[in-house]
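Please predict the structure of the following assembly.
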Amino acid sequence: MKRNLFFSTLVLLTLLVSGIALGQQYNQHEAFAPVFYPMYGDKVRAADGTPGPEYWQNRADYAIDASLNDQDHTVKGVVTITYTNNSPQALPFVWLQLDQNIYKTESRGNAATAVSGGRWANRDAFNGGYTISSVKILEKGKEADVAYSIDDTRMQVKLAQKLKAQGGVIRLKIAFEFKIPKYGTDRLGQLDTKNGIIYEVAQWYPRMCVYDNLNGWNTLPYLGQGEFYLEYGDITYSIDAPVNHIVVGSGELLNPKDVLTAEQQKRWADATQSEKTVILRSAAEVTSANSRPAGKARLTWKFKCTNTRDVAWASSKSFVWDAARINLPGGKKSLAMSVYPVEAATDSAWNRSTEYVKHSIEFYSNYLYPYTYPTAVNVAGIVGGMEYPGIVFCSARAKKASLWGVTSHEFGHNWFPMIVGSNERKFPWMDEGFNTYINTLADERFNNGEYASNIAPTQALTHYLFHDSTESIYNIPDVTQQRNLGAVAYRKPGLGLTLLRNEIIGAQRFDSAMRYYTHAWAFKHPSPYDFFHCIENYTGETLDWFWRGWFMNQWTIDQAVVGVSYINNDPKQGSVITIRNNGQLPMPVTVEITQDNNKKETVKLPVEVWQHGTTWKFRHNSTGTVTAVNIDPRQKLPDVNRSNNQWNAAK
Ligand SMILES: [Zn+2]
């Protein structure tokens, strides 16, 4: 889901309406308290932060046949779900997610939306949601009735016989239909363009809830702000659409010969060999009948996405389409693609989208884990920015730095949460925050820093993150106030990882630890404590003070310089410098010391100096009179009070 690109406006707003949270009391016993973890490791989730020897998760494979009606804007389909219970317990019932039901007028999400509306509000009194015409269980090739009940965005299926533990399988067949909202809570919808509607379709088929060893069934309703927690499996799906539509979706297109012209197949083959963007269907060809196969009214596009938590797709008559090769570690390849209306086909906008897709995926693949899907599609549409496996929806109006930013962000999600499948509905910082962090690294590098100005300086973020009505990172998104979500779910956890990397652990060790975490939990379900444990065990650092202060609480950083004295009152014998920790969160210290002989030295102190209390004195081997002491001189920490960071000798 999209980062807030309007952060500077928000900073101003928050400064106007509230002050910064000052006056916290530092307490070393609280900061460094011996017990942080609420539970010990076990055979499912080991204490070293990796999946234990008896780790299990359930599996959901889907086969879906659907059709798009572009007259009444509906999707109608049948899904067959093969659900495998790998848990140690037999299950008397299973839960599914019916996220389309948020668009019913009487939905919980609708009821819990403020009158003022907002990004996740249902608009124009749209009354949608699922029509579920049948729910069957398949047994020995035969369909049988099964008891089920629907409550808002959840469906419970009660099984006549318990689903066996450790490998029991059921197959459910569900027929569904829904009308595509014009504005689907900024996650799906329709965009009117000159050459036809762009349909962006997601949360479109009934999906299994996750059953895990932390909560059992994860059944939080879909209210809008909270995203998704999904099982892994293989998904094959077909979309039957009018012949003049181009359909793009998650995963591999299985039948290009059926749905592309001979010329388009040739251009596609060229694109798989090309570092530069190759046009598959040009702006001039969009309105030409020759750009679609002749002789049929409708075509069925078949896709397969393996080892995935979801699939999404888009369909339109209006698409310009282009592609270029993605180079992955180990010599593997994938294909970057973009589809967009002619209105967006300019060199300052979507003509560069595929370049952005290619470079962001190549960077994240090298940094963390090789991208796993055969294609990566960027779709221009009504959605501001939303991620799905192998396909993302970005605003058709995005340009230049904003298009790079949103593309890099949405594809960054392919690592968090698509590869590392955390629980987004409860812990948005594990995907939005981690993603914001890797986006910063990609911003620095893309095209020699062409869009490095997208990176917010730490000091500029301080007031945004620590004004007196912000909340802790550790809240479910539906409870986080909408205006704080950008800080709480994105910027603060993102900056938290940057601080771990640059100020606490060191770039090389931290990069390696993030790679280790990603590999350990690839296609699995880590909890927050699994992440904390994993980083601590791999780096060998105890970081409970940081998790506590930065993630669980709103502890602020306020380091200060108090003064300088000399050994035996003689600067040549050395100086003693006194510093203070006024904020509640201790951090390692960087001090720059300037002497009257123009010598300037930088001293680094570990966080442990604050284990003794609020004030710390350290000896510095000065050779002259100290004229200035500056703490955090390069402003790397979000220090809420910089007026006490500098000490100057009296002249
Ligand atoms: Zn996001």
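The first strand starts at residue 59 and ends at 69. Confidence is low (pLDDT under 50) at residues 5-18.
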